């Protein structure tokens, strides 16, 4: 493999994860995420780009955007980790993977979700930071698993650390 970062796999992987996640949101929370009326989208996108990100300091910690804390802490941590990890596994250095996670988070907040809710200040900061920490831990574990002599054990550890990536690589969709 080349030492150069591969851009297509992390971009396409992230877009697929975002599309599936956004579709699940529409099923779980039809109001506002399944409201496809253009006037509602226009209103929400207008708010997203003319008002600051939502941050309600009167709410408890990790509820500053009015979402339940498990969505913010666990969900956004895992989402950021998936974005960051995919970049790292495709030969991005740490700074580039952090930048990729920040860019992906902004695409999520201002692109995918902004037609239903205003971007969240918490999500914009926490998603890439928690994602980088968890993602780097996943990446170190995934790399270390490459040294496991037993092929079944190596595949198992890598599949636990990176289930979507192992499916993609196993199916020949991407090589990283």
Write up this protein.
Helix 4 packs across helix 6, helix 6 packs antiparallel against helix 7 (151-161) and helix 7 crosses helix 8 (163-170). The relative contact order is 0.16. The mean pLDDT is 96. With 176 residues, the chain is an all-alpha fold. The protein has one domain (8-170). Helix content is 69%, strand content 0%. The protein has helices at residues 8-28, 30-33, 38-50, 69-89, 94-112, 121-145, 151-161, 163-170. Residues 62-163 form the DUF3943 domain.
Order of helices and strands: HHHHHHHH
By DSSP (H or I, 4+ residues per run), the number of helices equals: 8
In total, the number of strands is 0
State mean pLDDT (0 to 100 scale). 96
Distance between the termini: 9 Å
**Main β sheet profile:** none
Strand % is: under 5%
- Structural class by helix and strand composition: mainly alpha
What level of helicity do the residues show?
Answer: 55-70%
User: How large, in whole angstroms, is the Cα Rg?
Assistant: 17 Å
Instruction: Note poorly predicted spans.
Output: none
Number of domains: 1
Principal-axis shape equals elongated
């Amino acid at each position: 493999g080349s030492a150069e970062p591969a851009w297509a796999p992390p971009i396409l992987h992230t877009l697929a994860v975002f599309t599936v996640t956004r579709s699940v949101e529409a099923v779980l929370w039809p109001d506002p995420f399944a409201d496809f009326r253009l006037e509602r989208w226009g209103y929400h996108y207008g708010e997203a780009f003319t008002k600051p990100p939502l941050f309600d300091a009167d709410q408890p910690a990790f509820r500053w955007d009015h979402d339940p804390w498990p969505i913010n802490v666990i969900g956004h941590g895992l989402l950021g980790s998936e974005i960051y990890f995919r970049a790292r596994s495709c030969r991005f250095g740490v700074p580039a993977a952090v930048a990729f996670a920040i860019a992906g988070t902004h695409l999520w907040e201002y692109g995918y979700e902004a037609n239903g809710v205003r971007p969240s200040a918490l999500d914009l900061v926490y998603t890439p930071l928690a994602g980088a920490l968890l993602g780097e831990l996943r990446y170190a574990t995934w790399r270390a698993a490459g040294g496991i002599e037993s092929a079944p054990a190596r595949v198992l550890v890598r599949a636990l650390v990176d289930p979507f990536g192992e499916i993609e690589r196993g199916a020949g969709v991407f090589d990283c």
